[in-house]
Design a protein that fits this description.
- This protein is mainly beta.
- It has a single domain (3-287), classed as Distorted Sandwich (Beta-galactosidase, Chain A, domain 5), CATH 2.70.98.10.
- Helix content is 4%, strand content 45%.
- The chain contains two helices and 21 strands.
- The protein has helices at 100-105, 241-247; strands at residues 3-7, 13-17, 22-27, 55-56, 79-85, 90-97, 110-118, 123-131, 137-143, 146-148, 155-158, 165-167, 172-174, 185-186, 191-195, 201-206, 209-221, 227-229, 234-239, 259-273, 278-287.
- The strands form three sheets. Strands 5, 6, 7, 8, 11, 14, 16, 17, 18 and 21 form a ten-stranded antiparallel β-sheet that branches. Strands 4, 9, 10, 12, 13, 15, 19 and 20 form an eight-stranded antiparallel β-sheet that branches.
- A hairpin with a 4-residue loop joins strand 7 (110-118) and strand 8.
- The radius of gyration is 18 Å and the shape is globular.
- 39% of the residues are buried.
- The structure holds 6-O-phosphono-beta-D-tagatofuranose (TA6).
- One of its GO terms (biological process) is carbohydrate metabolic process.
Length: 289
């Protein structure tokens, strides 16, 4: 499958497949991989790659039954439309436009532009969704980021703890759990939470040491170029734990111990875009320690 390798002169690298514009590796140094990809992931050009940063659009989950779970962006073939190298940044831009196939699933015209910007210390991924049609449309979008961890039992996540969330495992909305009054969230069971009014900045710690920070923003860009920040995009926290891991053919039974998903997006509702308007969802992954 075609893919693009970004290499920064300082030694950082990133790897992106045209299939789904799926980022599958981000190494700030040759010795350290930040993203998790299952050793059972399929690269058959059919199934979404299990790991890295699959792109979720135009739906999160499967509210429209005729469309695949999490939409069609992550299983579409994107075109590499631009690359650039400046003093500090190595950049690649992929794009995806509507096709007869997508219009049958979702009758709207769009242009998705996905920009990956690699610096010596960070990797930023920006998903821009533009309404190219004559009618407004509503959509959801999310960056389904799989982060590598050494041992999920030693992981704490800072930034979620004071925010309300929908608990998809318990199928209930939770204002906040008493235990979350501490300064972080831990993972010790299947976890599938949609945090609303997210913190815009999540830090992952292992054994008390900060390992990676994910900063994220979302905004609407108007035809005239003005933009309106969306103050609090959502952020999904997911770990399949034992049973769900065993139920996924493209995921190892014990791989839940080596990963956690921190997924910025707009998923607790559909956002609306007028013709010519665009929506920008961006995350910066910053390895620490
Ligand atoms: O982002 C969390 C989630 O929505 C979970 O509910 C789980 O379904 C996960 O995405 C993976 O979904 P996938 O379709 O990639 O198997």
């Amino acid at each position: 499958m075609p893919r693009v390798l970004l290499k920064h002169k300082a030694g950082a690298t990133a790897e992106v497949y045209n299939f789904g514009a799926t980022l599958t590796s981000y190494k700030p140094t040759p010795e350290r991989e930040v993203l998790f990809v299952s050793h059972k992931a399929l690269f058959d050009g059919q199934k979404a790659i299990r790991g890295g940063v699959p792109l979720v659009f135009p739906q999160f989950g499967q509210s429209k039954k005729e469309m695949a779970q999490h939409g069609f962006a992550r299983t579409s073939h994107w075109e590499l439309s631009d690359t650039a190298v400046t003093e500090d940044v190595v950049r690649a831009v992929f794009h995806l436009t509507d096709t007869e196939t997508t219009r049958m699933l979702w009758p709207f015209s769009f242009l998705l532009s996905y920009t990956l910007s690699l610096t010596a210390q960070t990797l930023t991924t920006s998903l821009r969704i533009e309404n190219k049609g004559e009618a407004p449309f509503e959509a959801q979008a999310l960056l389904h980021t799989y982060l590598c961890v050494r041992d999920i039992g030693q992981v704490a996540l800072r930034g979620f703890q004071h925010h309300p969330f929908v608990d998809k495992v318990a199928a209930q909305a939770v204002e906040r759990l008493p235990t979350e009054t501490r300064d972080s969230v831990n993972i010790a069971q299947e976890t599938d939470r949609v945090y609303q009014t997210g913190a815009n900045e999540i830090t992952l710690l292992e054994r008390g040491a900060e390992r990676v920070k994910v900063e994220y923003t979302a905004c609407t860009v108007n035809r005239d170029g003005s933009d309106e920040a969306l103050p609090h995009p959502d952020c999904v926290l997911w770990n399949p734990w034992v049973q769900k891991s065993q139920a996924m053919a493209d995921f190892g039974d014990r791989e839940f111990e080596e990963m956690v998903c921190v997924e910025p997006g707009i998923v607790s509702e559909f956002y609306s875009l007028a013709p010519g308007q665009a929506f920008l969802l961006e995350q910066t992954i910053r390895p620490l320690g």
